[in-house]
Design a protein that fits this description.
Length: 122
């Protein structure tokens, strides 16, 4: 089992920045690719970003490319999502997830955090 706890969400204005963190515990963190997803009420959970186990490979949704950066610190068992130039449409609950496979689909991930709310006002 892998336990994931997100933090860093909040209420910000359009154009502001936030950094989300996801702390992992349980099994060896570096054995897992890590993803960030987001969800708004009434919509499916959508992919935001993914990072490989060692951090060498990353992927982003088109809607966040160039604004968001995913990174990880395997010594601290933590993955981050730096979000710049936030827009109201970025408002959602953000989840981190872990899986042994580098994947973009939420259904492919075995472990999930509880989520952290990000609200961007216009």
């Amino acid at each position: 089992q892998v336990q994931l706890v997100e933090s860093g969400g909040g209420l910000v204005q359009a154009g502001d920045s936030l950094r989300l963190s996801c702390a992992a515990s349980g099994r060896t963190f570096s054995n897992y690719a890590m993803g960030w997803f987001r969800q708004v009420p009434g919509k499916e959970r959508e992919f935001v970003a993914v990072i490989s186990r060692g951090g060498a490979s990353t992927g982003y949704a088109e809607s966040v490319k160039g604004r968001f950066t995913i990174s990880r610190d395997n010594a601290k068992n933590t993955v981050y999502l730096r979000m710049n130039t936030l827009k109201p449409e970025d408002t959602a609950v953000y989840y981190c997830a872990a899986d042994s496979v580098y994947a973009l689909g939420p259904h492919q991930y075995d472990y999930w955090g509880q989520g952290t709310q990000v609200t961007v006002s216009s």
